[in-house]
Write a structure and sequence with these properties.
heterodimer; A: alpha/beta; D-Maltodextrin-Binding Protein, domain 2; 3 domains; 5-stranded mixed sheet; globular; B: mainly alpha; MetI-like fold; about 75% helix; about 0% strand
């Protein structure tokens, strides 16, 4: 840690302090010298930080066969508007998530992040850096997620975020391939006997604050020509649950995936709640990056497609190595292996050619990620099946 | 002593007449009811498994689990030097006073009982052997430090001075050593709060004193700059500054020239606390009679020396309670960093309630009561020690 640069600065500071104290007897000068010395030491510490981050980038990316410029030990590495180079320099993907979304990302007692969104952060890190654990998780409140993206605090937002036109436009976000297709639904107490939205006309509907949920409820009731319900927003789902148990809410509206998970944990048992058979909004939950860097956007997109394509090929974390000598040329191209003519196809995304192999080998395919984190909550695949099974997941071809 | 005396005492103080009696009974009933509820919660109904399982997160966040020996070592060194300094300092004050081990144990118990209670609570949650080893090591370091301090208390001033200097250096090395495990920015849990509060106190105190002196300076530029710095900082809520530092700065400066979030928060806490410290110290400076500095000037002391050796020591002695109050509120304000996504005790208690084993069970009370206990022990220890220091310096007895 004590490199030459900092020692030089400390020595310079010491000389300055000593020299001035000897030359001048005045107290003012001595104080100034002390101040100067402190500033110099601060500057030295500052430069040490950047060195440290370079060291780590060298550690992580040295195994990569990409352009290698990130790992060259160049001391003033920076993003200069190019996120991919910045990420490769830093050796870590800064991924915006939320620690408190069961199934999507939860902080476990050993300090690890576990969940569907967290795994997609790992997918991106595996594709870009070849190391699924090279993720810095940034915990973001709902209100802070786009600010974090805009101020450059994170490289990618994978935080259960609905892709809408105004977010694409106003928030300067570029949304990518949705990793989860959701829709807003309504949940009521089973013994209330309510069977459709008509039964909730003029009633109290409870939702979580700061999401698109509130507007969707009002719009749907207006569209159906029903009396507008009284919408109550809560900061936290625990509070909604409490209000619901006390009978202060008639309806509970959220994304169907969330409702399913809330229902499975309800203290009075899942049967006490019924999810109505209506879905009144489209909620494609998609990762987002900042506008203006299409190279980085493509990289994240193809990392996500890799999980979908892998499931389509039937490649899983366990059997990926069996596919390395597959007879199917498209599988060989997908995994970045040399084909029959001995040539490796590099799609030119700026990623290592075997990025899809790294994704599947280190994290898994889409189905595996889904089964690990969302299926236990009682969430059905539904729209999130492969296109060949009637779902919406469709990866463009890798060639 | 006898049964009649306490009956008389009861009658005089609690049951003098009918109204007093009713009030006494009512108060006793309410107090007993609350006590019963609290005890029942703590001992019976509270589902403390969530705290037990996530104790590591509460204590040191996402610190790499394979590097925990660093924390143990740091704890030992901290325990060693603190008790060394404490016993060196207090023994020097009353050299020659002999006390039996029994009275000493009693004094330790009276003085540190909140910390001891916390230690017992923490160890009661522990399921592995690691923390016991750490606790034993830390306790032995405590006693070793006390013994060394005792030996040093009769040593010449120069040696004691260098012991203090070595300690200061040791603390810096310690921080470096801890940061080596995870960098400056991934601190979490109680360790993060202590780190932020300690850094804030150490850095804001000199800055605040300088600002206070600057505000009384006769040079207009220094005076107006000091006033501006103090009043602008005091006029803005701390939350605003913290959010601005984490989410706002990125719009003005590129991310790669900015230091990490934790460092930015330390800067904000330092500046904010310094402004309040400056006002407290200014009050202290004004409480020192003019005659003091005039007399010093008559003796031929330079203005710098007058401030450093005559005015400041008296001024600071007068404002210890207010300063400690400010530092306690700094310690508690460190929980505000949970809103910018740092993993402090409060964000830990929010996050862990969503773990698959605990979600939907409404464990708000358990997690927050535990977080409250952590902060109460820290704050109460600070304030009790400051009262001791006041008594020793004889403040308020003049």
């Amino acid at each position: 840690m004590f490199d030459g640069q900092r020692w030089a600065a400390v020595r310079a500071a010491a000389c300055l302090l000593k020299g001035s104290a000897m030359k001048y007897k005045s107290n003012h000068v001595r104080w100034l010298a002390l101040l100067g010395a402190l500033l110099l030491m601060l500057a030295a510490c500052g430069s040490d930080d950047s060195d440290a981050s370079d060291d780590s980038s060298a550690d992580v990316t040295s195994g990569d066969s990409t352009d290698g410029e990130g790992a060259s030990g160049d001391s003033n590495g920076g993003s200069d508007g190019n996120v991919l180079a910045g990420v490769q320099d830093a050796g870590v993907v800064r991924c915006g998530t939320r620690d408190a979304l069961p199934g999507f990302s939860v902080l476990e007692d050993d300090g690890s992040h576990v969940g569907f969104d967290a795994d997609f952060c790992r997918v991106i890190a595996a594709a870009v850096l070849g190391d699924a654990e090279a993720v810095e998780f940034v915990d973001l409140e709902t209100e802070a997620r786009f600010t974090a993206l805009q101020s450059g605090e994170i490289d990618v937002l994978v935080r259960n975020t609905t892709w809408t036109a105004s977010r694409d436009g106003v928030e300067a976000a570029t949304f990518l391939q949705p990793n989860f297709y959701d829709g807003q639904g309504m949940m009521v107490a089973t013994d209330s006997g309510i069977e459709d939205l008509d039964g909730l006309a003029g009633a109290v509907v409870c939702v979580a604050a700061g999401t698109t949920t509130e507007g969707n409820v009002a719009n749907e009731f207006a569209r159906l020509g029903l009396d507008a319900p009284e919408i109550q927003s809560f900061e936290d789902t625990d509070l909604i649950q409490e209000a619901f148990q006390q009978g202060r809410c008639d309806g509970w509206s959220s994304d169907v995936s969330q409702l399913a998970s809330l229902r499975s944990d309800y203290p009075d048992g899942p049967d006490a709640l019924t999810i109505l058979d209506v879905v009144f909004s489209k909620e494609p939950l998609a990762p987002a990056v900042l506008d203006g860097d299409s190279e980085w956007a493509q990289v994240v997109n193809w990392a996500i497609f890799a999980t979908i394509q892998a499931e389509e090929f039937g490649i899983t974390k366990a059997n990926v190595d069996d596919f390395l000598d597959s007879d199917d040329p498209s599988v060989m191209i997908f995994l970045g292996q040399a084909g029959e003519d001995g040539a490796v196809v590099d799609p030119g995304l700026g990623l290592p050619v075997d990025f899809a192999y790294q994704v599947v080998a280190q994290v898994g395919n889409y189905g595996e990620i889904f089964d690990a984190h969302l299926a236990p909550l009682g969430i059905e695949r539904g729209l999130n099946q492969l296109w060949s099974d009637g779902g919406l997941l469709y990866s463009p071809p890798y060639r | 002593m006898t049964s009649t005396t306490w009956r008389v005492w009861l009658r005089r103080n609690l049951f003098r007449n009918l109204r007093d009696g009713i009030i006494t009974l009512l108060t006793a009933f309410i107090a007993g009811w609350i006590l019963w509820k609290v005890l029942r919660f703590v001992l019976i109904t509270g589902r403390w498994e969530i705290v037990e399982r996530n104790l590591a997160l509460f204590m040191y966040g996402r610190y790499p689990r394979e590097d925990l020996w660093r924390i143990t070592l740091a704890l030992c060194v901290a325990a060693f030097v603190t008790t060394m300094l404490f016993s060196m300092w207090s023994r020097a004050d009353r050299a020659g006073v002999k006390r039996s081990p029994r009275t000493m144990l009693g004094e330790i118990g009276r003085r540190w009982w909140p910390l001891i209670v916390l230690g017992i609570v923490l160890l009661s949650f522990v399921t592995t052997v690691g923390p016991w080893i750490a606790a034993c090591a830390a306790i032995s370091c405590l006693f070793a430090g006390a013994l060394l301090g005792r030996a040093l208390s009769s040593a010449p001033v120069r040696i004691r001075g260098s012991a203090v200097a070595v300690t200061m250096l040791g603390i810096v090395v310690l921080l470096w050593f801890l940061a080596d495990g995870l960098g400056w920015d991934d601190w979490g849990g109680l360790m993060l709060s202590l780190y932020l509060a300690a850094a804030g106190m150490v850095l804001s105190f000199p800055l605040g004193v300088l600002l206070a002196i600057g505000r009384q300076s006769s040079m207009p530029i220094i005076r107006s700059l000091s006033i501006a710095a103090i009043e602008i900082t005091r006029g803005v809520p701390l939350v605003v500054l913290i959010i601005l530092s984490s989410e706002g700065l990125g719009f003005f400066f590129p991310q790669d020239v900015l230091p990490g979030k934790v460092v930015r928060v330390i800067v904000v806490l330092t500046i904010f606390t310094a402004a309040y410290v400056a006002e407290i110290v200014r009050g202290g400076l004004q409480s020192v009679p003019n005659g003091q500095s005039e007399a010093a000037a008559a003796l031929g002391l330079s203005p710098t020396r007058i401030t450093a050796f005559i005015v400041l020591p008296q001024a600071l002695g007068n404002v210890i309670p207010a300063l400690v109050g400010q530092f306690i509120s700094l310690f508690k304000d460190t929980t505000l960093v949970s809103i910018i996504g740092l993993l402090d005790v409060i964000s830990v208690s929010e996050s862990i309630r969503k773990q698959s084993d605990f979600k939907g069970q409404g464990l708000v009370a358990e997690t927050l009561v535990f977080a409250g206990l952590l902060f109460w022990v820290g704050s109460s220890t600070l304030s009790r020690e400051s009262r001791r220091m006041e008594r020793r310096l004889g403040v308020g007895e003049r």
